[in-house]
Amino acid sequence: MMGFLGEWFGALDLGSRRLRLKLVVSEGPRSVLYSIDQGNAAIPASQTKIDGDKIFITWPSITASYAGQLVGGVITGQFTQGGMLPLTFSRTQDAQAKPTPLTQAGLARLRTDAGAPAIAAMAMKLNGRRVAFVDGVRAVGQPAAATVRDKWHIGSCGKSITATLVARAAEAGLIGWNDTIGQTLGALVPGMRAEYRDVTYRHLLSHQSGLAANIDLVELIKYPRSSADARGDRLSYARAELARAPVGRKEAHFEYSNSGYVVVGAMLEARLGAPWETLVQGHVFAPLKMTSAGFGAPGAPGAFDQPVGHAPNAAGTLEPYLPGAPVNDNPAVLGPAGRVHVAFDDLLTYLSAHCSRSAFLRAESWQTLHTPPFGGGYAMGWERRGDIIWHNGSNTLWYCEMQADLARGIVAAAATNDGRVDVVTVAVGQALAGVTEAVA
Hints:
This protein is 27% helix and 26% strand. It has 440 residues and is an alpha+beta fold.
């Protein structure tokens, strides 16, 4: 037991971020964990077992456990919290460790280890260097290689685009940040529950509205995968969700809600008289010259001219879901919550506008978008991580992460055409962190 006593330091590599940990083992044996980057509060273990050179610890309060082996003055093992991650503890605190700058060979290793068809990553320092890497194929079973000019589905990363559209409309005087659902949709949704009538854009965009995460799946699949005009579907969706009891009290309960963003879309459509897609094209994509941006799965049916989303089939083998197929994206009704595809050059243009807080919006609008309105870590379509604004997204066939480092003036994105989020998250996150360091 004596070899385990004292302070130990380690870090969980979550891909796009690294959580530093301190473990204190004392007689008993007892142990306490500290997450240095998450408030550094003490997390006592309910059980600490030491058997020779092996240690096993459980923390019910965070639903986590650790199993490790002490060899050569280092504890090497696995940390389990939902999934399993390698975690090594040593006696030295490495507070300055940084991700390794990404290279083409490094990206190839990440893709191969994850078993993804393709991974792409791109970063740019404002007014400085830009790098781009891609490895793999557009579709399993097809020879076409993915390229740095390809379009990638960004899933819920598109939520910040919807929030940016709200900011543009507010600056134009077409809506107000504090417009309520009751004011905007009251006449169109007579069955709306009273709890939602004074919910505003601020509540909806920061997931503090009380709305549930999603509509029931059996109802969602009734909506068409594509639509020339989804306004009626979004209003129907809003009616269904606004008739359901809240899952929490507004401003006091965070519930990551795709439904909240669909309601935002319905509100914008009711007030501005055009589909969300048209509004995004006119107020965001066109002014920023994002010519590659569009909606749904990228590419022409049967052409393999763009990456194709993948998911495991019944046998566990990755299967491509082709453009034009009955299933290749979420239903069109979910557009405001995340149904955008875009080439990384254009995505970095969008991220650069946020990072530099360009003249595309007024300073107060950027501040509103980047600040959690009711506390916590989620702003308007962005997760706030200190000086970094970040988001990820998946439609179960793709996975994407993007961020803007406001302090260092660096924007970056990484994505894969593989929807196995539990498998590819670390690889994509490491690609994002690595490509950011490549231009730092």
